[in-house]
Amino acid sequence: MRTLAWARRAVFPLLIVLATMAGAVPPAGAAPTATTATTATTATAAPAERAAAGRPVRPAPRAEEPTSATSSTATADPTDAAALPHPATPGGLEPGPGSHAGPVTGPDGPDGGDTAASLEPGAVRWVPCRDGDVAPDALAPAECARIAVPLDHATPDGATISLALLRWPAEDRSRRIGTLFVNPGGPGGSGVALARNAPALLDPEVRARYDVVGFDPRGVGASQGLSCGVDDDLLAAVPAGADPLGAQLAYGTRLADACEREQPGLLATLDTVTVARDLELLREALGDPALNYLGYSYGSTLGATYATLNPGRVGRMVLDGAAAPDAAYLDWVAAQLASFERSLERFLSGCDHQPRCPLAGRATTTWASLLDRAGSEGLAVRGGADLDRAELLGATTALLYLGTDYHELLAGLLLNAATGDAAGLAEFARRSSGLSAAAYYGVVCGDERTRPTTEELAARIAVLSRTAPTFAGHLREVRTCDALPSDGPPAGPSSLGATTDTPVLLVATRHDPATPYAGTLALQRALPGSALLTYDADGHTIVGRGSRCVDRAVAAYLLDATLPELGATCRPMHPLGIVLDAPGAVGAAVSALAVDSPAQGRLAPGDVVRSVNGLPLTRPDQLDELAGLGAPLRIEIDRAGRSMTVTVDVGPAPYWQP
Known about the structure:
With 658 residues, the protein is an alpha/beta fold.
């Protein structure tokens, strides 16, 4: 039953996976050099589906004095804290001691903090963050705070829940634009941890002109995070041969019971509409006239939900890796699993046909053999337990999340496993996600209140088995929701979408395995006036991961509200980003250069390329093939009747590009 256990941990949340190679993640366009994983940290999350509706009751948030326990909101191993995280993951940061603030409290608030019935905008009390696990000044000038918000927005004077925030004040106060809220997705990702890494994540000018604020959503991390004492071992312990759907239902029952004992009533309030209402209270408390926001993956769903509820209060909003706006949970997960199947096929096919791939010509057959062996006898791991099928899939999807730049590493790890040691894959498979099952299920099950019957679910699994045979069985996880609260939809909009005062910027990776590109197109239709920037590569989300083209466009929008042109597309650094006309008898003319092309300033549209490193140009893809070798290119061109040679230093490149 470990397949089911892994399904929640590594596929179903299916948000983002951060792989830390020797302590750092290469940016987009930089090729990993190792063929074994030294460190792997996975963070999971999933789409929250249909958010329901109505304009929220907006009680005043309540300020709380951050205590020493509160200021542990972003504790971590100092090594992890120093590493650049993937933007949509908690970056290895875990809530520290005292971050679980205890049970939901009454109006007096947790920790004896001030929870006055009203709070003037700007009255949040920020204090320097403290962290016992790192040097005292490691977070300077980051500031921390707590705010109490209603547990139930329909009863604003009732019980409250404490939310933890972290802020980097704008460096250029004279030109400050406002607050930029950031959310890493999940559900269950730590916005505090994401904000902590804002200096490495955001364009320097954006950092200079915005207060960057992250918050842990209710039930997550330092915001009274739910642990519920339930982990994947409960599924792993189900006897062999037990009904898988029954096992998922039993898991959900244990989860719901444990959460209710831990913090009564909280699990039923984790839905996206409620969190969007919390976000509106945070905006009010910080005194911003409109919400400026950067959200990744599920964070895009949260942003779109906020925009639906508050179209007149949307400022500059960037949504990266969006899910389809109104798909039911069952439909969305099925589409997601099919997308992962396509990503796996793209990787295997590309590797089969690329001589530089460690598994060139045998990637597909090697994968099939490994999957079969892992399911029957396990894959040998030097110095550790054998790797089973679920873990093999978990490690593989982790690397597919990271995209094209990690395909060579994945191929190398599969080769190692095929030749007798799956230790590298095991590193990816066996790291904890750091996200609680409670936060994930509380959101996705709270958003989707309808429950498919056993027969409906079994039928969908049978259909998906034909289009996504590798992953179809993981659709069973939907059954977990049967045991969670389902007392009718929260009061809110029946579907997502609105015409906002400020157009929204959507960013999407064309071959995103976790949030299929079609979902972003659907969200764009639901947000009239919004603009779409496409990153033409594989992987899940891209803002802040090293694409200068993407980050420049996002910075232009956040700083000046400048939207990219219709059809705007960014590409990885390699291939060269040189668009050639079809070669003729004497070469091929350059028709365009990508923003990130290393040939910028060396070649120009209209140049006719005759040869590369002494080889006559006979096909447009010759440039890309030679760029893949990583050596400087000597390109002979004709420019306005003059023959000349230019040298382009392409640097290292991944072995395969889509």
